[in-house]
């Protein structure tokens, strides 16, 4: 059985920090985890989709999503790490009025020096995510 390297353990810790900051809605902790020049990509064709560059833009996109749902629950499934980053798998449940979204999301993180420098957010049911969020466009 292969053991984790020091960098893999450190990357798991960073991934868990950003997870907790996101789940708790803690913008300060989120800011402390992201590099200043972060590139955050959200896949799809919806309100959140696209490339967000810089810490402020990423935090604003989180706030924008939270402002447009009535209820949001996130449940961590797994965290996988390599010497270069981590992947988070989680279950998302959101409600807006009578519309409900339930799906699994994968988040690929590039981590350098203890900070997230790049991220790709990939909902596993892209059509459901787009349909839920496109009411705003």
List the helices and strands and how they pair.
Elements: H1 6-24, H2 27-33, E1 34-42, E2 50-53, H3 55-67, E3 71-82, E4 85-96, E5 99-112, E6 115-123, H4 126-133
Parallel strand pairs: 1-6
Antiparallel strand pairs: 1-2, 3-4, 4-5, 5-6
Structural class: alpha+beta
How do the strands line up in the largest sheet?
A: 2-1-6-5-4-3
CATH-scheme architecture: Roll
User: What percent of residues are in strands?
Assistant: 35-45%
Return the string of H and E elements.
HHEEHEEEEH
The helix count comes to 4
Radius of gyration: 15 Å
Shape annotation: globular
**Total DSSP E strands:** 6
User: Helix share of residues?
Assistant: 25-40%
Average pLDDT number: 91
Please summarize the sheet with the most strands. Answer: 6 strands, mixed
The CATH topology comes to Nuclear Transport Factor 2, Chain: A
Model regions low in confidence, pLDDT < 50 over at least 5 residues: none
The top-level CATH class is: Alpha Beta
Q: What is the terminal separation in angstroms? A: 49 Å
